[in-house]
UniProtKB/TrEMBL annotation:
Organism whose genome encodes this protein: Marinomonas ushuaiensis DSM 15871
Domain HPt: 828-921
Name under which the protein is recorded: histidine kinase
Ranges where the Histidine kinase domain occurs: 303-526
InterPro entries (UniProt xref): CheY-like_superfamily (IPR011006), HATPase_C_sf (IPR036890), HATPase_dom (IPR003594), His_kinase_dom (IPR005467), HisK_dim/P_dom (IPR003661), HisK_dim/P_sf (IPR036097), Histidine_kinase_BarA_N (IPR019247), HPT_dom_sf (IPR036641)
Assigned EC number: 2.7.13.3
Positions carrying Phosphohistidine: H867
Catalytic activity: ATP + protein L-histidine = ADP + protein N-phospho-L-histidine
Segments forming domain Response regulatory: 540-658, 682-798
Keyword Transferase: yes
Length: 934
């Protein structure tokens, strides 16, 4: 009930109705109770006062005589009579001096003097004290007779002969009051309970139709139309009932229509889902097929590479061997042509492989310290030897910006490839003039430098409408069958991809009347290595350089190293200047053209300057040099520099001026291999192709290396278990047991744990090379094998005491912590590896996601991905990733995308590092993995 009343706090309609009905009756009943109680209480008090006053007056009247006659008995009787009233506590009679003369009952002690008035009433907590004076009338006996007279005598004029004090108990009146209050409260509660019940009943009756309407609407909302139709309303709500039923009808109708529509749409959706499923299944199959064909393509490429490079290996190897022995001019020309053609074929295969790698997204960049200036010099040097001819004498000028650092960290092989291709093209398509390469800094921050390269030629140029074809695969500007220049049309495509992979851009501008300029940028990292700054030479020279381009290039550099020079146009001018400046001249720098006349004149000048003035000459020659035809010339000059002349070589030549010509110097023996060390070596060569094995033994045996040949992996193991070899040269692709499997088995043999095993592979993909190292081999050489490189590698590895594990550990130390990975899972290798694989498998996709979010500046999603990798990397031993993910996550949370590039790059690099070295992790052998490996 109480609960019910509490729920009736006026929040709902029914509760409001309840309070509207109940509140008036409650207020009326409260007022009525109050009035009843107050009137009854005042009545009770009034009658108590009256009763007490009457008794007091009675005692006063009767005690007058007793006091006058000092009648103690009478006084006692009077008191006795008064005390017979049960509510009288005590009665006292005092004389005029206010001394007690008679007393009955237990009186409270007196507190103050009596008042002079007739009757005084004092109220105490549980009694009333009434005091009254007793007056003496002059003739008490005449009082009845003289009553008339006494009436006119004021009481003041009458004599006070004593006092009466009566104490009347109030407790009985109090009890009556309580009784009455209880009765009224009981009636009040009863009345209100009955009222509440009545009001509840009434409000229920009043609310019933409203509730019904609300219930009906509720059912309508839930779509229970039939239930609504069955509902009945009181007759006075007939109109509402009708409206509700109409509404129900209409809603039911709409609902049916809607259901029909939904059914139709569901059917449509189901059908399109079916077709989507079918499509997605088809797509899945197509994707699988594409992936499979991609895999087959990669496999095919690897095989082709192997199949083509293996015979080429033999062709090149034997060609080089033949070149040493052939003396017949005609035959030598044939062999040179074979070598040249084989090299061209190799270059084409290299291009096709690179292109396929790029297409398959498998081109990974390496990172190493390299000197860009030397690299450009080297590219020029190689290309000038290969591409310049007697008829094609163009100036090749590398212009390296003075402020540009020389050392960088990046993929030097790919930078070389880009430059070789662009400079090679420029030389190929230029008949006269120059090919210049300018390098300068485009922008720079703490971590990376963006370099700007310009390869400028004065060649045939490219018509404007054909420029946009340039970077498309297999496209060449001249597609006619009579085209003058060979090539696959892949060079620029590969170049563009490589540039883009190094976060750069490439563009070209060309004018057939002027030539072409290829501009590109590359992002490289700064290296700790410093430029090799040159001390000023403070020299003076005479320069004979007919080419103005070359002359100004030389002037610029000579200025930098504080070498002053007098430029001459021809030999006569040199001689005349020489006679004037002989004292101040330190050297003559002489450019010689490849024709015989020029070489002869140069020879005369060198002799003249040397003999007459003791001034040394430095020759600058352009390939193909005729110098070889004049061996005596070589012996006369201080130095011979091959054009294009690099700064370093020019500086060295000028700083080490030799007044004793080089031909007369004691010959320095060329740096040779430690043949004694090689003589003691026992090498096992493993290859399924007898021709390759023959070639190997042909190269090794003359150097005193004891070479044993195995024609299969199985045979290699058998031979190795009988005899101990110092080193093994291992082919990778062999029938039955390949090189990697053979290595695995060999490593299990006693004495072969650390024996250097060098792979001879025709496989070109980076991932395969990683696999080769992971299988336990120490190094690899790519076919076709060069004799010198082979011997150098053997030489390196016989003196290398570093074990394979040492090398792997050195690579992995900053990337992966195996101990940590195993500790987390209580040393359970299976689980640790599974967790690691899960993370590593996802990293490639995550990396792309990060790059995508970075490009779209989506900080929140970026944090989400980085946080995910951060979490996972903590439990998989991938310490480097965990560290960089931590940096990146904190950076993103605190600074958002401001300056995030460098941090993100480091993180991505950490991911790539792990993926590149993943195969090298030395997981302890478990039962499972050992069976898989076997
Ligand atoms: P290729 O192997 O045929 O040289 P590239 O991709 O390197 O393939 O070049 C594609 C074509 O672009 C060339 O065949 C040539 O027509 C044109 N080309 C490239 N560089 C130059 C240049 N410096 N001057 C003129 N034409 C050029």
């Amino acid at each position: 009930m109480i609960k019910r009343i509490f729920t009736l706090i006026p929040t709902t309609l029914s509760s409001r109705l309840f309070w509207a009905l109940f509140l008036p009756s409650l207020s009326i009943s409260i007022i009525a109770c109050f009035l009843l109680l107050s009137s009854r209480f005042s009545d009770l008090e009034k009658s108590l006062y009256e009763h007490a006053t009457n008794i007091t007056k009675q005692v006063v009247t009767t005690s007058e005589y007793a006091i006058v006659f000092s009648d103690q008995d009478m006084m006692n009787r009077i008191l006795q009579n008064a005390l017979e009233n049960h509510d009288i506590n005590s009665v006292q009679i005092f004389n005029s001096e206010q001394e007690i003369i008679a007393e009955l009952g237990k009186a409270a002690p007196l507190t103050n003097n009596f008042l002079k008035s007739d009757i005084n009433i004092a109220e105490f907590s549980d009694y009333l004290a009434l005091t009254s004076a007793i007056h003496y009338a002059s003739n008490i006996f005449d009082s009845t007779l003289n009553a008339k007279n006494n009436v006119f005598i004021s009481s003041n004029h009458r004599n006070v002969i004593g006092w009466v004090r009566v104490e009347v108990s109030t407790s009985e009146t109090q009890i009556k009051k309580y009784q009455y209050a209880s009765l009224v409260t009981f009636i009040f509660i009863l009345f209100n309970i009955l009222t509440i019940l009545g009001v509840l009943h009434l409000s229920k009756i009043l609310m019933q139709p409203v509730n019904k309407v609300s219930l009906a609407l509720n059912k309508l909302a839930k779509g229970q139309f039939s239930t609504v139709k069955l509902m009945s309303f009181p007759p006075e709500y007939a109109a509402i009932q009708k409206d509700i039923f109409d509404l129900t009808e209409r809603l039911e109708h709409h609902n049916e229509k809607l259901l029909l529509g939904i059914e139709q749409s569901t059917e449509d959706i189901r059908r399109s889902m079916d077709s989507m499923e079918e499509k997605s299944a088809q797509l899945y199959i197509a994707n699988r097929e594409a992936m499979e064909s991609n895999r087959l393509k990669s496999q095919f490429l690897a095989n082709i590479s192997h199949e083509v490079r293996t015979p080429l290996n033999a062709i090149l190897g034997y060609t080089k061997t033949l070149q040493k022995d052939i003396t017949n001019k005609q035959q030598r020309l044939y062999v040179d042509t074979i070598e040249q053609s084989t090299n061209n074929l190799l270059a084409i295969i290299g291009d096709i492989l690179d292109f396929s790698k790029i297409e398959a997204g498998k081109l990974n960049l390496e990172s190493n310290n390299f000197n860009l200036k030397s690299l450009i010099d080297d590219v020029y040097q190689t290309l000038s030897i290969n591409l310049l001819s007697k008829d094609k004498q163009i100036d090749l000028v590398p212009e390296f910006g003075k402020e540009t650092p020389e050392w960088f960290v990046g993929d030097s092989i790919r930078v070389r490839q880009i430059l070789t291709n662009l400079i090679g093209n420029a030389i190929k398509f230029t008949h006269q003039g120059s090919v210049r390469t300018k390098v300068s800094i485009a922008s720079q921050d703490k971590k990376k430098i963006t370099l700007s390269f310009h390869v400028i030629d004065t060649g045939i140029g490219i018509p404007e409408h054909k420029i946009n074809r340039l970077f498309k695969p297999f496209s060449q500007v001249d597609t006619s069958t009579t085209r003058q220049f060979g090539g696959t049309g892949l060079g620029l495509v590969i170049t563009k991809k490589l540039v883009e992979q190094m976060h750069g851009k490439i563009e070209v501008s060309s004018d057939p009347t002027i030539g072409s300029t290829f501009r590109f940028t590359l992002d490289l990292k700064q290296s700790n290595k410093l430029n090799n700054d040159k001390a000023p030479l403070n020299r003076h020279i005479i320069l004979l350089e007919p080419s103005t381009t070359y002359k100004s290039y030389m002037h610029r550099y000579l200025n930098e190293i504080k070498v002053s020079c007098t430029s001459c146009f021809d030999l006569e001018q040199v001689i005349s200047v020489l006679s004037k400046e002989q004292r101040t001249t330190d050297a003559i720098l002489l450019s010689v053209t490849p024709d015989e006349q020029s070489v002869l004149e140069a020879k005369e000048l060198i002799l003249y300057a040397g003999q007459q003035f003791n001034i040394p000459c430095i020759l600058m020659i352009q390939p193909p040099g005729q110098i070889a035809n004049y061996p005596d010339l070589k012996g006369l000059c201080s130095d011979i520099l091959l054009k294009p002349i690099s700064h370093d070589r020019l500086y060295n030549a000028l700083s080490n001026l030799n007044h004793t010509p080089i031909g007369l110097q004691p010959q320095q023996p060329p740096k040779s291999l430690d043949t004694e060390k090689l003589t003691r070596l026992k090498i096992l060569a493993v290859d399924d192709m007898p021709i390759n094995l023959q070639l190997l033994s042909h190269w090794l045996q003359p150097n005193g290396i004891e070479t044993s040949l195995a024609y299969s992996g199985q045979q290699a193991i058998e031979m190795a278990s009988i005899e101990q070899f110092d080193m093994i040269l291992m082919d990778i692709q062999m029938p039955e047991m390949d090189g990697m499997e053979t290595t695995n088995e060999l490593r299990l043999l006693e004495g072969y744990e650390n024996t250097p095993i060098i792979a001879l592979t025709a496989h070109a993909l980076g991932s395969e090379q990683q696999q080769i190292l992971a299988s336990g081999m120490n190094a690899y050489l790519t076919k076709p094998i060069d004799e010198e490189i082979l011997l150098n590698t053997i030489d390196n590895w016989c003196s290398n005491t570093e074990t394979l594990q040492d090398q792997i550990d050195a690579k992995l130390i900053n990337i992966f912590d195996l101990e940590k990975a195993l500790d987390i899972v209580d040393g359970k290798t299976d689980i640790a590896k599974e967790m690691f694989d899960m993370l590593a498998d996802s990293l490639d996709a995550e990396k792309k996601l990060i790059q995508h979010h970075l490009a779209h500046q989506d900080t929140e999603k970026l944090i989400e991905v980085v946080h995910r990798i951060h979490g996972a990397s903590k439990y998989t031993g991938t310490i480097n990733i965990a560290r960089h993910a931590g940096f990146l996550e904190t950076h993103l949370k605190e600074l958002e995308l401001e300056g995030v590039e460098g941090v993100a790059e480091d993180f991505i690099e950490a991911i790539e590092d792990l993926l590149n070295h993943r195969q090298l992790i030395p997981w302890p052998q478990t039962l499972d993995s050992s069976t898989t490996n076997a």
